[in-house]
Amino acid sequence: MPPKHKIRAEDIRAMRLEDRLKLLKEMRVELITLRYKASVGTLTNPGRLRELRRNIARTLTVMREEELRGARGEAKQG
């Protein structure tokens, strides 16, 4: 289950890729569930939607940074 608080970028960087992907999937599933609850009107904490969206974006950003850092390292060596 994804954490109920803001995830720091350094915590995401410390995770393995498999753990990041698992966390990302869990957060996306929870976001879908909360969006449904919001449409039905049973959502208790609307701030959680914003927090989840930002955590997902933060995770994707860290993953992209590392992807680009790896590509840049290969270009310099090649």
Number of H/I helices: 3
User: Residue share in helices?
Assistant: over 70%
Residue fraction in strands: under 5%
> How would you sum up the global shape?
elongated
> Class by helix and strand content?
mainly alpha
The total beta strand count reads 0
Reported for the largest beta sheet, the result is: none
End-to-end C-alpha gap? 41 Å
Mean pLDDT, nearest integer? 92
Radius of gyration: 15 Å
- In terms of per-residue confidence, which ranges show pLDDT below 50 for 5 or more consecutive residues? none
Verbal overview:
The chain has three helices and no strands. It is mostly helical. Helix 2 packs antiparallel against helix 3 (47-77).
Search tags:
single chain; 78 residues; mainly alpha; elongated
What's this, in brief?
This protein is mainly α and 78 residues long. It contains three helices and no strands.
Task: Indicate the topology.
Blueprint: H1 9-14, H2 17-40, H3 47-77
